[in-house]
Amino acid sequence: MKIVTLILVVFVTLSLSFPAAIKAADTGDTGNVGVTCDARQLQPCLAAITGGGQPSGACCAKLTEQQSCLCGFAKNPAFAQYISSPNSRKVLAACGVAYPTC
């Protein structure tokens, strides 16, 4: 339990330290043309990714909204471990969001 808490604290700290607010052009069929990429928007998913539980509706909505940004987050060393984690893949699958192929 301590490691989950530590990961949560690190993720929140890093997400606030590196605000990834960039415009992303949609390259797929996500319908998210011109979405502003912001890793902080994925905070509703943090418990499911770090704890392995079911994602909330808010989490799935934000993942769908930020889908075109996931490659950018995966390439950012501050967020890569969260995007590539097994729990992240489960959360993406549960929300019907394709795992990014960058």
Question: Describe it for me?
Answer:
With 102 residues, the protein is mainly alpha-helical. It is 50% helix and 6% strand. Strands 1-2 form a two-stranded antiparallel sheet. α3 crosses α6. The longest helix has 16 residues. The relative contact order is 0.18. Keywords: Lipid-binding, Signal, Transport. InterPro entries: Bifun_inhib/LTP/seed_sf, Bifunc_inhib/LTP/seed_store, nsLTP2. Pfam families: Tryp_alpha_amyl. This is Non-specific lipid-transfer protein 2. It comes from Camelina sativa (False flax).
Keywords:
Bifunc_inhib/LTP/seed_store; Bifun_inhib/LTP/seed_sf; disordered N terminus; 102 residues; single chain; 6 helices; mainly alpha
Residue stretches low in confidence (pLDDT < 50, at least 5 long) are: 2-10, 16-32
**Secondary structure: helix percent:** 40-55%
Mean pLDDT: 77
Query: SS-based structural class?
Result: mainly alpha
Keywords: Lipid-binding, Signal, Transport
Pfam families: Tryp_alpha_amyl
Domain Bifunctional inhibitor/plant lipid transfer protein/seed storage helical: 39-102
Protein name: Non-specific lipid-transfer protein 2
Provide a brief overview of the structure.
This protein has 6 helices and 2 strands; from the N terminus they run αββααααα.
Write the layout of secondary structure elements.
Blueprint: H1 2-17, E1 22-24, E2 35-37, H2 46-51, H3 57-65, H4 70-75, H5 80-83, H6 86-95
Antiparallel strand pairs: 1-2
